[in-house]
Amino acid sequence: PHPLLAEEKIRRLSLRGIAVDLPEPIMQPLQVMAFQEESAPAFAAPVPDSNNPPQTRDPEEDLLCIAKTFSYLRESGWYWGSITASEAKQHLQKMPEGTFLVRDSTHPSYLFTLSVKTNRGPTNVRIEYTDGKFRLDSNYLSKPRILAFPDVVSLIQHYVMSCTMESKNEAPYPPPSPLPPMQKEMAAAAVHLKLIRPLSRKDNIPSLQHLCRLRINKSTADVDQLPLPRRMGDYLKQYPFQL
C-alpha cells in the first residue's frame, strides 16, 4: 500500500475534479473474494525483478489523484464516509441484490471499501490504490486479471455497466477454462459481484442540477459539442459519470 494513504485519510484534500476520458471495455462481472475488513488473508508478495526496478512516482501525483477521487465521490451522493462495516450491513440488509455504496475503509492500508448486497447477503470488498490506479482487492493470483482505473467512480461505473450489459444479453457467456485445484477452491468460496444501483445517503439528496447532469452524461460522451454556456459545461465536466 502507498505510504501516502494514511496521510491522505487525515488531510482529505478537496480539489475540483477534472474530466476523465476512460475507455469502457466490456467484460463479465468478476468473481470477487468476500474479504472481511478485520481479518483479510495474507498472500505471498511477488519477488522483485532486479532487472526492472520499480519506478518512483511523484508524491504530488498521488495526492492529486486521491484528491480527485474524493471530489468525485462527494459529488456522487453514494459515498457514505466513515461508517463501519456493521453500519453498511444494516443499510444494505433489506436492499435488493446489487445495491451498493462506497465508504471509508477501516483498514489503515486502504482508503475505500465497496459494500454491496450479494446473493449471500451484504459483503465488503476493499478498493486498492497502487501507482495512480484503483482496483478491487483480490488474492494475489487474481490481481493480473483485475482492471485498474484512475478513480473510484470510474471503477464502479465500469462494473455497473458490465452488469447492465450482461442482463441485456440473452446468450450465456462461454464456459470458463478449467482451473487448477487451488484456484478451484478459491472460486468455490467466491461471491459473484453484481453492481446494479447505488444506495444514496438520505441526508444527501441529489440536487436537480446533479440529476440533469447525470441524464446529459448518459446521452453524450462529449459535452464540448453541446451548445452550452462555458460555466455549465465546466459543471458537467466536474462529474463526467452516469451514476
Structure notes:
The structure is a single chain. With 243 residues, the protein is of the alpha+beta class. The protein folds into 2 domains: 1-6 and 26-36 and 57-167 and 185-204, SHC Adaptor Protein (2-Layer Sandwich); 206-243, Elongin C, Chain C, domain 1. 33% of the residues lie in helices and 14% in strands. It contains 7 helices and 7 strands. The two termini are 28 Å apart.
Distinctive features:
7 helices; two-stranded antiparallel sheet; five-stranded mixed sheet; CIS_SH2; 14% strand; 33% helix; Elongin C, Chain C, domain 1; 2 domains; 243 residues; SHC Adaptor Protein; globular; alpha+beta
Topology of this protein?
Blueprint: H1 4-11, E1 31-32, H2 59-76, H3 85-92, E2 99-104, E3 112-118, E4 121-130, E5 133-136, H4 152-168, H5 181-188, E6 191-192, E7 197-198, H6 208-219, H7 230-237
Parallel strand pairs: 2-7
Antiparallel strand pairs: 1-6, 2-3, 3-4, 4-5
A few lines on this structure:
With 243 residues, the protein is of the alpha+beta class. 33% of the residues lie in helices and 14% in strands.
Contiguous helical run count:
7
Spatial shape: globular
Helix content: 25-40%
| Number of E-type strands | 7
The second-level CATH architecture of the largest domain is 2-Layer Sandwich
Tell me the number of structural domains.
2
User: Could you list the spans in which at least 5 consecutive residues all have pLDDT below 50?
Assistant: 10-48
What is the CATH H-level superfamily of the largest domain?
A: SH2 domain
Structural class determined from secondary elements: alpha+beta
Q: What does the average pLDDT come to?
A: 76
Helix and strand sequence: HEHHEEEEHHEEHH
Computed Rg:
19 Å
Strand content: 5-15%
State the name of the first-level CATH class of the largest domain.
Alpha Beta
Keywords: Growth regulation, SH2 domain, Signal transduction inhibitor, Ubl conjugation pathway
Domain SH2: 78-175
Organism: Dromas ardeola
InterPro entries: CIS_SH2, SH2, SH2_dom_sf, SOCS_box, SOCS_box-like_dom_sf
